[in-house]
């Protein structure tokens, strides 16, 4: 019964011993050094004596340069190993080497593993020497790769230049010409890069890069969403061109003259001389008012006259003044309309058209309101304020006459009814002629755009880069 279990038990012990030895070897293998492999059997001759075995093992151990102070002693087939080594792997390798030598009965391994000091840089130096050797062997390949990359870069520039010249007349946008030229030239560089990776044996890396382009594009799109949005908006704005350089536009409440547009924003110079940078995505998604697209512009102002004055006469006087003003256009014809019957005045709204490229809005409105006031004043047409006011030019007389005979009422003053206002005299043309159309204080009515442009020419531009509007 004991013999029945002895054989299987020996087999299990043998398997466990082999598995443990294998796991120990796997754990002690260093990733920085190659795993030493011992030959199956080493022959030393037909009849191996102790001295031959010692000489053979000593020569092999010394040739590896893994051991120091190597001493091999063989007595009746028993090998005694002495010396120093730098790793447990080399120690186990020497023992296996001695065991597989012919006519060796047993091995006594008395070698010592040296512990490396923390200042020992020999592994790093060994890796550097290995890297230097690899670089020297790969030097022809590196030179060829650099040549291919330079050739592909030169070809890309040449194709982009040719494409830019070809598409410059078809697209009015400089940005679109640049983008189309780069898209046409990009395959040249990609082909050169693929050839370099193929020659270097990095085909899998090339396929990985090509396959991961979509995923990287998604990641970059989320990370740089605002930048991509502004870039796309700049492309669409450069194609549609809702405004041009030096146009007076209004976007999101900002009014200014367009200075430049890059891939991020559009720069405006406000009428106050300030630079305003508006992101292109904001401009594209909001309402754009271009005051320069049509030079003719309409404006208006309100004037109130008294209830006792003739509305028709006031309208004719203001219309005559508008028709005689050199800055007001006769086509479309100006209008003087009754807007509202207020508490104390009849409000007239005056509409007029003018050339905004030549005249300033604020200056012209000042001139027209000044002339309107003079015209109505000369015609004795009142312009009262909001409080109702009754004027008695002759004063308020008090009648102290006694009451009629037989009346017992007390004496009370009587307030006479004021005399009706005299008819309005005809307009004083001579006085009106003395009123100048424009004054030095009003800046002579010319547009402020020229002054703002002069300020912009001398001011530094806050946003650098290629101007996409040129």
From TrEMBL:
Biased composition (Pro residues): 415-428
Signal peptide residues on this chain, from the entry's feature table: 1-24
GO function terms (MF aspect): mechanosensitive monoatomic ion channel activity
Region (Disordered): 395-470
Transmembrane segments: 135-154, 175-196, 202-224
Keywords attached to this entry: Cell membrane, Membrane, Signal, Transmembrane, Transmembrane helix
Comp. bias (Basic and acidic residues): 441-453
Domain BON, residue spans: 49-115
Compartmental location: Cell membrane
Main location: membrane
GO cellular component annotations of the record: plasma membrane
Domain of life: Bacteria
Membrane topology term: Multi-pass membrane protein
Family under the similarity heading: Belongs to the MscS (TC 1.A.23) family.
Name recorded for this polypeptide: Mechanosensitive ion channel family protein
Organism: Synoicihabitans lomoniglobus
Lineage: Bacteria, Pseudomonadati, Verrucomicrobiota, Opitutia, Opitutales
